[in-house]
Amino acid sequence: MTKRDFDVLIIGAGISGISAAYYLQDQCPGKSYAILEGRANFGGTWDLFKYPGIRSDSDMYTLGFIFRPWTSRKAIADGQDIMTYLNETIEEFGIDKNIRYNLHVTDASWSSKLFRWTLKVKNSDTGNTDVYTCNFLEMCTGYYNYEHGYTPDFKGKELYKGKLIHPQKWTEDIAYENKKIIVIGSGATAVTLVPELAKKASHVTMLQRSPTYIVSAPDEDKIAIWMNKYLPSKMAYSISRWRKILFQRITFWACRTYPNFMKNVIIKGVKKEMGPDYNVEKHFTPDYKPWDQRLCLVPNSDLFETIKSGKASMVTDHIASFSEKGIVLKSGAELEADIVVSATGLNLKILGGIQYTVDNEPVDFAKTVSYKSMMFSSVPNMSLAFGYTNASWTLKCDLTSKYVTRLLNYMDKHDYKMACPRQNDPNLELEPWLDFTSGYIQRYIHKLPKSGSRKPWKLKQDYLFDRLMINNGKIEDDVLEFA
Fold first, then answer.
1. Does residue 135 contact residue 116 with C-beta atoms inside 8 Å?
2. 456 with 477: CB under 8 angstroms?
3. Same domain, 323 and 355
4. Which of 10, 69, 240, 414 could cross-link 61 (Cys pair, CB 3.0–4.6 Å)?
5. What does 196-263 look like in DSSP terms, one character per residue?
6. Has residue 238 got a pLDDT over 70?
7. Each residue's pLDDT tens digit, 114-161
8. How many angstroms separate the CA atoms of 291 and 434, rounded?
9. Of 193, 182, 202, nearest to 325 (Cα)?
10. Given this model, what pLDDT does residue 1 score?
11. Which of 342, 374, 396 is the last residue of a domain?
């Protein structure tokens, strides 16, 4: 008979779910657990996206796990290499044996009488709805809707005779050789797609409404490669990891503290890449401050080199409407294309889109306050793994995973069955959960939990601060209620 009652259930088998599983079995070896994955494979983002050139936009020394060193030469890795790394990780630590696929959680109900979560789980293989129960629920479902990305309601798109596709729906059978392609967007997906598509397409146009800050870096870290050759692997990995963490932190701090100076540094770098005759002011100079939105990384200057070669071009304009042949711009120009790729962003979906109740009362997470950026006021025995917007996703997920094991061990030591943050301070000022102006966040921010004006309710995009608070801070405080 299939076991469906566990101490802990982890929802999602991507990077954050794998991290949660590792720390749980390492630090709480007596706990039973399972990972419920709604899709047919592990990997999350890295299994879902199939578009050409899919790669990390963070270095692999911080996107990789601290417990399993990344040893490949490439610091910026493609999707297949990341999937291989994740596969080797789950096999090495036996995590693969605890993953159950094609199980989509639709409802989660907490009972304070039973100290249990009861989950309704749709089984895609059988069509049945199964019931799973656990004491603690670790949500590792990522931050966006896996069903469909965000595509604006473009005027006249029904007139277009070519192929219009969102990168999230890209399939490997799409033929783009010798085709004219328009990529709409200016974010990480767009800057990844353009140079890769240009290798086979007749021409690629990157059509953006407004520019993004773009910086270039080598896809290989020569210092890390040298250390991997001459130092023990764990030592080399640790040094490389901390080099990247500190560089990220200093860069973010400088952008927020001296935005005009850092803007000039970034734009000067682009001018050096593109040459004196290119209109950097129009195509690569945003009207917002650095790190108000995420910076885009291009490895080995590939986007710049592709544009300079003439295989791709940048157009900064607004879309008036689609036409039979392509896109008509507000300037009056028309861009023709066989394929239009709408790299226009994601649709957020926090906590898996599941319906939650606590003691028969529905939970509206927009009315909750985030505790240590991983639990929520008046929601017992549940954590959310949510990575950084200004650094690698995995850094924050690892901190969350380790904190949960500390919490579980503390509860066992004191014979507690429930831990629940309570926000009873009338003087606590509420703030947005994410201080980021990106469109995909702003479209969804009214549905997100709130952050508080001070710890432990304060969310800071700061790994060093979080490391001290989460790894070394006391479990007990005047906020977390035990029963």
1. yes
2. yes
3. no
4. 240
5. HHTTTSSEEEEEESS---EEEE-SB-HHHHHHHHHS-HHHHHHHHHHHHHHHHHHHHHHHHHSHHHHH
6. yes
7. 999 999 999 999 999 999 999 999 999 998 999 999 999 999 999 999
8. 13
9. 182
10. 66
11. 342
203 and 308: one domain?
yes
Residue carrying the six token digits 């749980």: 24
pLDDT single digits (tens) 179-205: 999 999 999 999 999 999 999 999 999
Q: How many residues does the chain have?
A: 483
Bridge partners of 206?
183, 314
Please tell me whether residues 450 and 307 are part of one structural domain: no
Asked if the structure places residue 151 within a domain, the reply is no
Task: Tell which of 297, 317, 342 closes a domain.
Answer: 342
Give, in order, the Cα–Cα distances in Å from 378 to each of 73, 250, 370, 448. Answer: 46, 36, 10, 15
Whether 152 is covered by a domain: the verdict is no
Based on the structure, what is the number of domains in the chain? 2
Task: Render pLDDT for 57-68 as a digit per residue (tens, 0 to 9).
Answer: 889 999 999 999
Q: Could you tell me if 115 and 216 lie in one domain?
A: no
Structure tokens at 166: 């969102």
One DSSP character per residue, 87-121 reads HHHHHHTTGGGGEE-SEEEEEEEEETTTTEEEEEE
